[in-house]
Design goal:
74% helix; single chain; Growth Hormone, Chain: A; 486 residues; mainly alpha
Length: 486
């Protein structure tokens, strides 16, 4: 975190840490399916019509329905967050996480799995924008980037924990049930913890009055309290002169924020991050990691652990750098590294016959390279940017739209990865000589091209928000200035 002005460091970090359990649940419930899927697809109680395992399209739906539910949750909850407040919505979301975890653990059919994965998806969709919104609005300006990035750190921790849980229950009878049930624990921590946290000063100023907003700003130790209060009041007064919330969202001066939010979320997802998160054991199985002696499920999950660890480690690096280097330099660095890694994966799988057993290690190293570059750039910064660029009056709705776009793009990737790989590059022999597997090489090339487009978008349109208050960013757009000139 940036040094300088004093603030109530311990209390602010505690607030961010408790709220970030929503991010941890986001990461856990998206990552846990990667290992659970290897058990679910072969579970004789779930496989139907005499098949030896669930069809690829059924597997894709079990994975991606959560993403579709997240899109619904993100879009439908924007107005609720603005009306009920950020705190109450996070409490409700924690309950949904808990109910979904128990429902999945008790599921006795593919239909039940899909329904409860959808419920968890709704919770993930709400949490994915409400948590960074909450932390952004309650954080002192000079440490906002680092504190909002704690949410992304929590997401990566959740993913890493999910891989550990998958590995721990890989040998259990119907171990996938226990994998899902573990999600109940962080759900209860979030639910209980949020009762003890304050509402954000910007929401309080809008709905409860200045005294309540002052009280929270004093508790967090905002070093520029009077300046922040003045800016909030000024922006609220200006917004009252504006038309209704949907007209404000459609106003010309808000359009750049919409483009930034939608664009950065498309790029974050369509560069393929969730093929790694959802399908890493499956990709390692394609590359030959499940073919060696021993438990094939355990052997395919095991290489995912370093990926999860690297994801956590470099998200911590991002938290350190985001308020020092700024948002755009990290985006440039990250996208370049991701494109190189994706091209390497595409080449390795496309020419797997020529490289033979080296495919395993090239794919592993390429994924290990891809993850840190994502973790220092698009991972945290996309969520940080959408918490910064929208005006106060429509911040909840604007973030929910951007988050919905994120989940729609996520759904496209999760629901097509196996099919796209088969369509573009065909199949490859199963390393254990038990048939054929999808060849994902073509999919990785497509993600690399989108990464190059992302670099162009960052250069031409993304503003550098480092060091600017939310109110100053809003005024920049209100004055009709180009985002890049902030």
């Amino acid at each position: 975190m940036a040094k300088s002005k004093s603030y109530n460091r311990g209390y602010v970090i505690l607030i961010a840490a408790i709220a970030a359990f929503g991010g941890l649940l986001f990461g856990f419930d998206t990552g846990v399916i990667s290992g659970a899927l290897l058990l679910i697809k072969d579970d004789p109680n779930l496989v139907i019509n005499g098949m030896t395992q669930l069809p690829e399209r059924t597997q894709e739906w079990i994975v991606s329905i959560t993403v579709l539910g997240a899109a619904v949750g993100a879009l439908s909850s924007g107005r609720i967050t603005d009306s009920l407040g950020r705190k109450k919505v996070l409490i409700i979301t924690a309950l949904l996480f808990a109910i979904g975890s128990v429902g999945l653990a008790a599921a006795n059919s593919v239909a039940a799995l899909i329904i409860w994965r959808g419920v968890l998806g709704i919770a993930i969709g709400v949490a994915s924008y409400t948590v960074p919104l909450y932390i952004s609005e309650i954080s002192p300006t000079h440490v906002r980037g680092a504190l909002v990035s704690i949410n992304q750190l929590a997401i990566t921790v959740g993913i890493f924990v999910s891989y550990l849980v998958d590995l721990g229950f890989a040998d259990f009878d119907e171990g996938w049930r226990w994998m899902f049930l573990v999600g109940l624990v962080p759900s209860l921590i979030l639910f209980i913890g949020m009762f003890f946290l304050p509402e954000t000063p910007r929401w309080l100023m809008n709905y409860k009055g200045e005294d309540e907003a002052k009280r929270v700003l004093d508790k967090v130790g905002e070093p520029k309290r009077e300046e922040v209060l003045t800016q909030i009041k000024s922006n609220i007064d200006k917004e009252k002169e504006q038309p209704g919330i949907f007209k404000v969202l459609g106003a010309k001066w808000v359009r750049p924020a919409l483009i930034i939010g939608v664009g950065i979320m498309f790029i974050q997802q369509l560069t393929g991050i969730n093929t790694i998160i959802y399908y890493s054991p499956t990709i390692f199985e394609m590359a030959g990691f499940g073919a060696e002696a021993g438990d094939p499920v355990f052997n395919a999950i095991l290489p995912s652990l370093p990926i999860g660890f690297v994801n956590v480690l470099f998200t911590i690096v991002s938290i350190y750098l985001v308020d020092r280097w700024g948002r755009k330099p990290l985006l440039y660095l990250g996208l370049i590294g991701m494109v190189v890694a994706l091209i390497s994966l595409g080449i390795a799988f496309t020419f797997h016959e020529s490289i033979g057993g080296a495919l395993r290690w090239i794919s592993f190293v390429s994924m290990i390279i891809y993850i840190p570059f994502f973790a220092i750039s698009l991972g945290p910064i996309a969520w940080l940017l959408i918490s910064e660029v929208y005006p106060t009056k429509v911040r909840g709705l604007g973030m929910s739209i951007a988050t919905m776009v994120n989940w729609v793009a996520n759904f496209l990737v999760a629901n097509t990865f196996l099919s796209l790989g088969r369509a573009v590059t065909g199949t490859m022999p199963h390393p254990a000589d038990t048939g054929t597997l999808v060849n994902p090489g073509g999919a990785f090339f497509i993600y690399a091209v989108i990464g190059i487009i992302g670099l162009i978008f960052v250069y031409t349109y993304i503003p550098e928000t480092k060091g600017h208050s939310l109110e100053k960013i809003e005024k920049h757009f209100l004055d009709g200035k180009h985002p890049k000139k902030l």
